[in-house]
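okkk here we go again. third time trying to get the NAP bound version out, last two times i messed up the smiles copy paste (missing a bracket lol). double checked this time i swear
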Amino acid sequence: MAGYALITGASSGIGYETALKFAAKGQNVIIVARNEEKLQQLKDAIAAQYPNVDVVIKVVDLAQANNVKALYEDVKHYSLQTLVNNAGFGDFGSVKDADINKIQTMLHLNIEALTILTTLFVKDYENVEGTQVINISSVGGYEIYTAALTYSATKYYVAAYTEGLDVQLRDKGANMRAKVIAPSSTKTSFMDRSLDTEDTDYDAYFDRYNTSEELADYIMTLYDSDKHIGIVDDDTLELKLYDHFYPVNTFGADQ
Ligand SMILES: NC(=O)c1ccc[n+]([C@@H]2O[C@H](COP(=O)([O-])OP(=O)(O)OC[C@H]3O[C@@H](n4cnc5c(N)ncnc54)[C@H](OP(=O)(O)O)[C@@H]3O)[C@@H](O)[C@H]2O)c1
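finally!!
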């Protein structure tokens, strides 16, 4: 029986398209976000195209740590194969002008929820053949963006955590793989949410950008690859795959 891909932030943008790609691949999907109507639209779209795929909707605010643990408990009886930690948003402007509540929510979502879900998944599934966690970082996780500094730092966390986790899993001889993808500009609701605006004109804002479907294709390329890092080149918008990016120190790891 096909396993389930648990995909957070599936109500729009990259997560929505990624859920469609996993469904096309024959994996059942558990789609998570706060907007139930949009999740239902995705479920209907998958049912129309891939009627054999099971779609489970979970309406959850992942910025609350207790909700994250409850979500995992709620879905752990499904045979999980893939975890895609995609839910996240950004914030622009100087640190001095930051809205404390907004950045606190961003830290909870971009870092805490991702870490809790990854940890619970690893505990239960690290020795299950074919399992993968894919975490969504950003080019801002590989280059410091001072215009969105706190956001950029959250994505450094995601990159470092996921790269290190894959080394740890490989060193242990575990079956699970951990992979990180770093999108460049991608046309989604991201800028609206990050800038607290509506209908950002991507063509005016960016010289170039990927569509969310292109990004979902990149996620599937990384999923199928032996490499564990995918970074979108800012100039060409092409995906580049790497085995190592940040230096890793495994001192004491065998204790
Ligand atoms: N677009 C870009 O240029 C870009 C570049 C680099 C990295 N990224 C990363 O890509 C990922 C996906 O973003 P996107 O570009 O596809 O933006 P998006 O269209 O705004 O999607 C964000 C998703 O996260 C969900 N989400 C937000 N807050 C949530 C919460 N508290 N609890 C549960 N779900 C929540 C949203 O659903 P609800 O509102 O329904 O909850 C939505 O499904 C993010 O991690 C982002 O940082 C994006």
